[in-house]
């Protein structure tokens, strides 16, 4: 472990942006990475919250993310998500680098959503309703601007101040932005949910057939951001079927209600990237993300490759 490079927050975010991260994910899926073979996430309850262990192996790399989820941290001015990512050489399991885990998560999750929007949303989508105002919401705002011509952003939060703060940031990016209510989804092209909610955030019957909904905030079977009405009416896409049906309350709860079956999922990111599954145009598209270890590995490996290559134009 002596001399292992530590890639801190600024290094991780400086080396790779959301479009490049989304491209790396798509490339891995085109090259045959199978999310269904990804190891399950291990969750350990600890006094401060949860400790998540996420291992994966693909190509020349193996890695593991140890992430902390500390719900009490924001009140103390600390990030809710903590941790680190250990990247290993695949054939020898020798350590290659330690990456800032929070930075990796903040990069990875919007990149996955950006790839889903790239593949699912109508090309002219420009009206975004964004639930949440934390780091993930801000990251999604930046990531989705690279995929669709967003010019109107409505931010929905429980308290008005965070919504106005994120809306002000969106205005610095040249977008018309302001706070809204859950009913604002009725006029949206894109709806993105980045919250810690455990109950549905809006009435799914308000969602139009041309709308794409992305829900990323929960990975627990008894928590959800979208309601049964939306799930039932939508073409549902996920990162991996096994993980979604094990962790995504958005799907597990409607299934337990007897409203949908296990075959309700229309396809996965891999299906979309490879063209195996067409995108329906006659109903909403719902992408439900729980976050998977293969995504962290692919993006950590891409960050490491760029770091190892050195600055552009540097001697090899």
Automatic annotation (TrEMBL):
InterPro entries given in the database record: NAD(P)-bd_dom_sf, ODC_Mu_crystall, ODC_N
Coiled-coil ranges (or none): none
Domain of life the protein comes from: Bacteria
Gene3D superfamilies according to UniProt: NAD(P)-binding Rossmann-like Domain, ornithine cyclodeaminase, domain 1
A Pfam short name: OCD_Mu_crystall
GO cellular component: cytoplasm
Protein name, per record: Ornithine cyclodeaminase family protein
Organism whose genome encodes this protein: Streptomyces palmae
């Amino acid at each position: 472990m002596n001399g292992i490079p530590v890639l801190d927050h600024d290094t991780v975010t400086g080396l790779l942006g959301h479009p490049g991260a989304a491209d790396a994910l798509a490339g891995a899926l085109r090259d045959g990475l199978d999310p269904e073979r990804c190891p399950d996430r291990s969750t350990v309850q600890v006094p401060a919250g949860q400790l998540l262990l996420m291992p994966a192996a693909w190509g020349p790399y193996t890695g593991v993310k140890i992430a902390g989820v500390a719900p009490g941290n924001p009140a103390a001015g600390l990030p809710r998500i903590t941790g680190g990512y250990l990247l290993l050489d695949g054939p020898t399991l020798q350590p290659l680098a330690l990456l800032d885990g929070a930075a990796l998560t903040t990069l990875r999750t919007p990149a996955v959503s950006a790839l889903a929007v790239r593949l699912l949303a109508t090309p002219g989508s420009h009206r975004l309703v964004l639930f949440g105002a934390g780091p993930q919401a801000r990251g999604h705002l930046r990531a989705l601007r690279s995929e669709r011509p967003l010019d109107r952003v409505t931010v929905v939060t429980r308290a008005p101040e965070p919504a106005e703060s994120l809306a002000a940031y969106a205005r610095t990016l040249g977008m018309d932005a302001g706070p809204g209510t859950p009913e604002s989804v009725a006029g949206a092209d894109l709806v993105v949910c980045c919250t810690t909610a455990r109950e549905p955030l809006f009435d799914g019957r308000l969602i139009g057939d041309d709308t794409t909904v992305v829900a990323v905030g929960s990975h627990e079977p008894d928590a959800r951001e979208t309601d049964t009405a939306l799930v039932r009416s939508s073409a549902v896409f996920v990162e991996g079927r096994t993980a979604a049906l094990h962790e995504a309350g958005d799907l597990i709860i409607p299934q337990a209600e007897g409203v949908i079956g296990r075959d309700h999922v229309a396809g996965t990111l891999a299906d979309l990237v490879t063209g195996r599954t067409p995108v329906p145009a006659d109903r909403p598209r719902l992408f439900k993300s729980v976050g998977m270890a293969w995504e962290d590995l692919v993006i950590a490996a891409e960050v490491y490759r760029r770091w190892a290559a050195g600055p552009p134009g540097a001697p090899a």
